[in-house]
Amino acid sequence: MSNDVPASILARAATLDTIAAVLPIDRRDRLAELLTDEDVETLKHLVNQGMGDNTLRALASDLAYLEAWSQAAAGAPLPWPAPEALLLKFVAHHLWDPAKRESDPDHGMPSDVDQVLRDRGFLRTAGPHAPDTVRRRLASWSTLTKWRGLNGAFASPGLKSAIRLAVRAVPRPRRRKSAKAVTGDVLAKLLATCGGDSLRDFRDRAILMVAFASGGRRRSEVANLRKEQLTIEQPVKGEDDIPLPSLAIHLGRTKNSGAGQDEVVYLTGRPVDALNSWLAAAKIDSGSVFRAIDRWGNVSRRALDPKAVSDIVKRRVAEAGLEVGEFSAHGLRAGYLTEAANRGVPLPEAMEQSRHRSLQQASSYYNTTTRRTGRAARMI
Q1: Cβ(275)–Cβ(267) below 8 Å
Q2: DSSP designation for 355
Q3: In the chain, pLDDT over 90 holds for what percent of residues?
């Protein structure tokens, strides 16, 4: 930040520094400018209360968007608690009918508000928001309101009705986070792009293999993985009784686990070799496993940002000559279960590794293969 930055912003930035391990530090200055003193204190309080890192990151991201939208739409920071009229305006700005917009320019988000949010990097695509995104941001707004000891109008019949009618007016097919799953054949193409001996090749190869083989780990779990979470296990007998290296990854508390429950998954064989090669090449014996590498080949002491994991996947997709828009980091998670189905691995066994708690959610990936190749899909 420059020397002419207001003292209030510098103070907020200093406070955000104290919770930098949870919030993405590269966004610290941006958050300091957007959030109010009360917002920052609320986030700090949530850190001290032991709220999960991923949950807190999502709350901070949603809060930044809400504050940016409020400044653009109302010319003022978010009021606490927010009146019902402001909540209804938020819905109207984000859930709208593109067909009606053609005949009524005032329908949906005003063009000046849209432009401000685009200029600040909060809007990237055209059209209304996904209903799930709007619901999540309203839920974050409600959670933050309650943590301030206040009550809001989030459960009002008027707001619920507005959301229901808006969603019904513009039906949208539910889309997967990754259009295509990164199955075994796709993974092989990605790994072929990082078969060299550079640090980036070692790191990216380990990321791809560990994320996939450990059950399709989320990008946040990959980015936040620490050496202390790895435990060497007894070798496993492979073909011809050749011993294969094995290790356990202690995930701790995850999105799908209960409080205080330590989720454990296992790696065997090639993924362990790839991980050990990266750790040796990068000389990492403690702390964050996957880290940034600068242009001079220096390995950072900080963990990768979860978004960087997605960027790595997309870069390797491009280098493999595949369509970048069809794959994302989440494709590794979907790909693990899809590949398990392709290889005839029973769903319960696959779920032990993916750590899905919902049979319905896991089977949505798993059953796609069976349905696509089964007799029911080949009646003529």
Answers
A1: yes
A2: -
A3: 36
